[in-house]
Amino acid sequence: MTQSSPGALAGIRVVDLSRILGGPYCGQILGDHGADVLKIEPPQGDDTRTWGPPFKDGVASYYFGLNRNKRVMRLDLTTAGGREVLLALLAEADVLVENFKTGTMEKWGLGYDILSERFPGLVHCRVSGFGADGPLGGLPGYDAAIQAMSGIMSINGEADGDALRVGLPVVDMVTGLNAAIGVLLALQERARSGRGQFVEAALYDSGLSLLHPHAANWFMSGKTPQRTGNAHPNIYPYDTVATATDPIFLAVGNDRQFRILCEHLEVPALAEDERYATAGARSVNRVALKAELEAHLRKHDGKTLADTLVAAGVPCAPVLSVADALQHPHTLHREMVVEMEGGYQGLGAPVKLSRTPATYRHAPLTEGEEFLPRNVGAA
């Protein structure tokens, strides 16, 4: 929705000092749901302005994807004057989001201990690499490095291939989500206590949090998880399979779905075979099962079969390109592509609220510093 009706966070004021991905993504989520977000950039701007191509008016698409529903001003926090301006802004703010290296805010006299005394209701959210203490405390963190250290890369890739980075910055993005959740939790608690608190979302913690079911498997069995390509480590068939045309992904999670699949492939006896009759047996005998399924799947057009199976209750999907996914009719129906004045296009908010839906009010690069009045959205 592009209208300016109050969102769930209307009246909440956010100063976003963060740059790159995790913090800005958190700020965009808060802004989409009505918070008044002011993004403070250093004099040279957020680094991601240069992370292209493609570029529009000299600013990279990467920046446009993370900085909607914010107004922008530049401020040099290395100077006393810049810090005084920031303090004046924080006097009117509910939330501070930052992702400076641990110790930077403290060096500037802006650590949580000082800010919490001056602004007791402020929720101070820090996105960090590893947290402030411990063996790796204070070190900078980067998405790909955390994917490597957290074990994510070790279980991503073909079984006989090398460990691979997931093809999107999943650690940065889930850290941004965790930061947004943390801010909302702190605001909810503040409604009871009247006090803000320090919220930290670390890339390292967030990377580890993504290890289900591999961590659960290791805790129970002690066996180090291995790469399985597109296949699920616990369930089968939960894998990409070949057809006569394009591959499809089968996501069969129970015996009933497997029986339906076998009936549609006109091999009902396969569902009665003791090697495949139960979920556990299918997982153990996955290599033989994949060969048998693909022998029958190669008689079918992939897209047509996927449409038929999913209508019958078998979870599956064609393997689409990014372009095809973004132009899919259901993508448009779900309002997951946003268009704004000036030619801006971006991904829509994935959380849908019935009375206070997300709104899109400020395209990236909107100039301005004045917070909205406190009574916006009040009954």
Q: What can you see in these coordinates?
A:
Keywords: Transferase. There is one protein chain. The chain is built from 16 helices and 14 strands. It is an alpha/beta fold and 379 residues long. The protein has two domains: 240 residues, Rossmann fold, CATH 3.40.50.10540; 71 residues, formyl-coa transferase, domain 3, CATH 3.30.1540. The strands form four sheets. Strands 8-7-6-1-2-5-14 form a seven-stranded parallel beta sheet. Strands 9-10-11 form a three-stranded antiparallel beta sheet, with helices on one face. Strands 3-4 form a two-stranded antiparallel sheet. A hairpin with a 3-residue loop joins strand 12 and strand 13. The longest helix is centred in the middle third of the chain and has 24 residues.
Beta content:
5-15%
- Give the topology string: H per helix, E per strand: EHEEEHEHEHHEHHEHHEEHHHHHEHHEEE
C-alpha Rg, in Å?
A: 24 Å
Specify the CATH class of the largest domain: Alpha Beta
Could you tell me the mean pLDDT? 94
Number of helices: 16
Structural class: alpha/beta
What's the name of the CATH homologous superfamily of the largest domain? Crotonobetainyl-coa:carnitine coa-transferase, domain 1
- What is the second-level CATH architecture of the largest domain? 3-Layer(aba) Sandwich
Largest sheet: 7 strands, parallel
The end-to-end span amounts to 21 Å
Give unreliable regions as ranges. 375-379
Strand order, main sheet: write it out.
Answer: 8-7-6-1-2-5-14
Q: Give the helix proportion (percent range).
A: 25-40%
Overall strand count: 14
Overall number of domains: 2
InterPro entries: CoA-transferase_III_domain, CoA-Trfase_fam_III, CoA-Trfase_III_dom3_sf, CoA-Trfase_III_dom_1_sf
Keywords: Transferase
Pfam families: CoA_transf_3 (PF02515)
GO molecular function: CoA-transferase activity
